[in-house]
Design a protein that fits this description.
five-stranded antiparallel sheet, alpha+beta, rod-shaped, 27% strand, Beta-Lactamase, 6 domains
């Protein structure tokens, strides 16, 4: 019985142990099943993940498994990777792999470790590596994930390149550039600030309330009022004055734009400053020039008008224009387009219109012409018009200056009539009248045809002495010097022989007058001449010298007259006063008397004359 009981007890224990074993086996099976499920789940997640992943052994770094995203990244096939290291597969350099393992050994993990990847065909790429350790079947492995940051690295490179280029441009740009933060402090200032303001970049960066201390005191209020809005919208071409470091005041033009990180996040504002002092000085000079021109325009004695050419209409006039034409400025500026030509005399309107049209077409037209105008009260006046054209912006203008020449034209009419009257007189006078210039050249002659046989055009331009008898040339030379050089006479009478066109010489009784300018300088002479007949000569002697007891026909009238006064004991000075001649001329006649009578002195001449 005991053996049976023992056997039953053993059986029960064995049965319990068996049940326990069965339960353990079932649990193991469940664990294996769960492990397989987890492994399958991990495998699916690993292989199908869009993030590049790979598993390597811890020690050798041999690839155990890789997912498709990784193969796509490095452009390799699975069999080109599995069983190899990263350097053997050729997409990581050995030095990079060394850095990678050093980081793993130092910290036991790798987080956001940046490594350059070398795909099979395309250019280099950049990856951000994260590594965790894992164990399987008592073996240690590394699970590595890679984030492709190539686009970000390229953007960073491009940004740095842009920053480098911007810095290069900013360093050499002519304008002064600022980047002011939202707190009002400068973030960056270009080197051109020193050229414009005299302050260095470091001085500006540490300047309290930059750039307000530089702003000219009278402009600071305007500057603050403008600049407070620059973080909201652009402000262009704001003009201020600044005080340079050396105390010089200059003008600057400021253009500013807000700097935005995103649509609504401000990073301050950027401003560009340009020195416009030269331009402002030119503008000031131009303004002064315009003021001076305006004063000249309004104070001119001549009438001035500016016309717009599209259509032709008066735009500006000065006070002299109003005085000349007699219209008020309101009346002038309200003239309809075609009515402005009513200011022109009817016979001259077409000429003026043609000039204006041609000038508008930029054709060659006279810059100065004469025309007649009609004033408001109907008076016709002559004007000399000086016209010019110019552009102001895109508009074309004409300017006309009217110089009143009415008095001159009237004087010319009187002169023409006077010249006509005297021309008729000189052309019908029986005497030959000749005008010579200061060189003795004949400029004008009348009645030379009847007297000497020459037409006027045959003698004009020829020296007067060329027609004089050779025996009279020396005497006329002395006579010329006495009148022109010594100025001992201004008017005188004498006899002269002139060559006729047919060759013979005609005795002429000549009356001469010297012409001079306002300073008394010789400018020419006028000569009246008439032929001397023997009969006429004796009659003149008898009329002019009634007390002369005789007439010596060897002597001229003047020489007989001089001889008469010598007989009466008159001196040269007395004779010159009596017959209104210069002493030099009297001496000349005395010498001729002595020569013609073959006398040695005056007494001898009187004796010879008395014996005749």
């Amino acid at each position: 019985m005991e053996d049976e009981a023992k056997t039953k007890k053993q059986l029960i224990e064995e049965l319990g142990a068996l049940r326990q074993a069965v339960a353990t086996l079932q649990g193991f099976k469940d664990e294996v099943k769960q492990t397989r499920a987890d492994l399958e789940k991990f495998t699916n997640t690993f292989l199908q993940n869009s993030i590049p992943m790979f598993i390597t052994t811890l020690k050798e770094g041999i690839f155990v498994d890789v997912n498709d995203a990784f193969l796509k990244l490095v452009e390799l096939k699975r069999d080109e990777v599995l069983g190899r290291t990263a350097t053997e597969a050729g997409f990581i350099k050995e030095e990079q792999r060394t850095l990678f393992h050093n980081e793993l050994g130092k910290h036991g993990r790798v987080e956001n470790f940046e490594i350059e990847i070398r795909p099979k065909s395309i250019g280099d790429r950049f990856g951000l590596f994260n590594i965790v350790m894992m164990s399987f079947n008592n073996e240690s492995y590394l699970l590595t994930t890679i984030q492709d940051i190539t686009s970000r690295k390229l953007a960073e490179y491009q940004l740095k390149e842009l920053e480098r280029k911007f810095q290069t441009i900013a360093d050499f740009t002519y304008d002064w550039e600022n980047w002011i933060g939202v707190d009002g402090n400068p973030i960056w200032i270009s080197p051109s600030v020193e050229r414009i303001s005299g302050y260095s970049v470091s001085e500006c960066m540490t300047m309290p309330e930059f750039p307000l201390p530089m702003i000219y005191p009278e402009d600071r209020g305007k500057f603050l009022a403008k600049i407070q809005y620059v973080q909201e919208w652009p402000l262009n071409d704001m003009e201020f004055r600044i005080i340079k470091k050396d105390g010089t005041i200059i003008w600057i033009s400021v253009s500013a734009n807000p700097v935005l990180i995103e649509a609504s996040i401000s990073a301050g504002h950027r401003s560009s400053i340009r020195d416009i002092t030269h331009r402002k000085r030119m503008e000031e000079a131009l303004r002064e020039s315009e003021e001076n021109y305006s004063q000249l325009f309004n104070n001119s004695f001549d009438a001035i008008a500016v016309f717009g050419n599209t259509p032709p209409q008066i735009r500006f006039v000065n006070s002299a224009f109003i005085r000349l034409f007699g219209y008020t400025s309101e009346e002038i500026f309200t003239f309809p387009e075609d009515d402005i030509f009513l200011l022109v005399f009817p016979d001259d309107r077409e000429m003026v219109k043609n000039y204006l049209r041609a000038r508008h077409r930029q054709e060659s037209v006279p810059g100065q012409y004469e025309s007649r105008i009609i004033t408001k009260n109907g008076e016709i006046r002559w004007v000399e018009v000086s016209a010019a054209s110019f552009y102001k912006g895109d508009e074309y203008f004409s300017q006309a200056i009217y110089h009143d020449i009415t008095d001159r034209k009237r004087a010319e009419e009187v002169l023409v009539k006077s010249e006509e009257k005297y021309r008729l007189i000189t052309e019908n006078i029986t005497d030959c009248i000749t005008l010579i210039d200061d060189h003795g050249i004949i400029q004008y002659v009348t009645n030379s045809l009847d007297t000497l046989g020459y037409k006027p055009e045959e003698v004009i331009g020829i020296p007067g002495l060329s027609f004089t008898h050779s025996d009279d040339v020396e005497r006329m030379g002395r006579f010329y010097r006495e009148g022109v050089v010594d100025q001992v006479w201004r008017k005188s009478d004498f006899e002269l022989r002139l060559r006729h066109k047919d060759g013979h010489y005609v005795p002429m009784d000549v009356s001469a007058r010297i012409l001079g300018d306002s300073q008394g300088l010789f400018t020419g002479g006028v000569f009246w001449a008439r032929p001397i007949t023997q009969h006429g000569k004796i009659e003149d002697d008898l009329l002019r010298i009634p007390q002369l007891p005789f007439v010596d026909r060897r002597l001229t009238l003047r020489e007989n007259e001089v001889l008469k006064w010598i007989m009466q004991g008159k001196s040269t000075w007395d004779i010159s006063k009596i017959i209104n001649l210069s002493e030099g001329t009297v001496k000349f006649h005395v010498e001729k008397v002595l020569k013609k009578l073959s006398a040695v002195n005056r007494a001898h001449a009187v004796s010879i004359a008395m014996q005749k």
